[in-house]
Amino acid sequence: MYQSILVPTDLEHTDALSKSLETAIHLAQHYGAELCYAAVTPSGPSPVAPSPEAFEEALQRFAAEQGEQHGIKTRAVAIVAHDPAVELDNKLLDTIESTGADLVVMASHVPGLADKLHILRSNAGTIASKAKVSVFVVR
Fold it and tell me: What pLDDT, in 10s, does the model give residues 44-57?
């Protein structure tokens, strides 16, 4: 049913994404699909890596480790953005199309005060409403 599953990944917070990462892994195992880890990084240093090149290497290692650990085919796509907070949704939507993903599995953010005040917008909600493929949002 699914051949290529894209899972947006934040290397700085993989522990907070454990449910969505595990869900994507189980779906990839079930369908024999390739799992594509996609992550957005700034064009300069970040908390994860001193450069976009180092970030891409870290993401590639993460994807390879996950593939070996869970017996699935993986790949990684590092996406460079000048302002990741502003460009995240559009960069992910472009990546969904360019990778040929037919399913996206992503975490929702944890609801809190910012939601009640309508300060935070939902990246998962935006992706689900604009993507041309199915989006599985994991809370």
Answer: 999 999 999 999 99
